[in-house]
Amino acid sequence: MTRADEFRALHDDFLLLPNAWDVASAAALVRAGFPAVGTTSLGVAAGAGLRDGLGLSREATMALAARLAGLPVPVSVDVEGGFGADPGAVRELGHELAALGIAGVNIEDGRENRGLTDPAHHARLVAAMGESGLFVNARTDTHWLDTERAGTLDRVRAYVDAGADGVFVPGMIDGAEIEALVAAAGVPVNLLYQPGRLSVGTARGLGVRRVSTGSLLFRAALGAALETVEAVRDGVPPPREVPTVQQIQGL
After folding, report:
1. Domain coordinates of the chain in residue numbers?
2. Are 186 and 156 within 8 A, CB to CB?
3. DSSP SS3 for 176
4. Mean pLDDT of the region 158-170
5. Does the pTM of the predicted model rise above 0.90?
6. Contact, 139 vs 108, CB < 8 A?
7. Which CATH architecture has domain 3-249?
8. Are 81 and 109 in contact (CB under 8 A)?
9. Strand pairing report for 210-212 and 115-116
10. Distance, CA of 226 to CA of 108 (rounded, Å)
């Protein structure tokens, strides 16, 4: 069984997919018992000093993918919009990731400052990526960007027809909309965990097969670092227990 097949099988029931931004965070998630790990494009881009969503972090993404491929669990890589508009280049990207031993990808139709890309064109990118054998999670940003929401199901169907193994609609939280999406998709539906707005239990109860944490863990880590250094500055104990040097070395 390939890593991609192993990853597909995890969607037969339900998968909580945490998103890492470097090797240490991914290894920590594996040690915590998660059966698969994804990456967050925001975390990877920001870690390299780049803006997310502009297709600038291909090099950083591929370098991290090469390191994460050695983990003992399937890894899915967020490739933003595919790092290019040419289906041939996206096909090559997919084959490169598959050759590394990566299990899946997340490819989105949103473009920062430019809204949504044409669904027919994105479907061609999905099809090109699918030739690699990776688990292709086709993301539509109709709800994330709060635009063209009425076309969500049409986009989902187009991407599934193009060969998507799963579909991702971050920002969707309405129960009736989620039920309609699950009924129409015909493939595993992925939603984004949103504190106070969409819980794992609610999503699972509505038939969702995968919930991702997106950039939440990366942002939480930055927040915790700032809280800790502010406590040091203010002469009070750090607000939380932190891993020891030995525990980090052990990863």
Report:
1. 3-249
2. no
3. helix
4. 98
5. yes
6. yes
7. Alpha-Beta Barrel (3.20)
8. yes
9. unpaired
10. 31
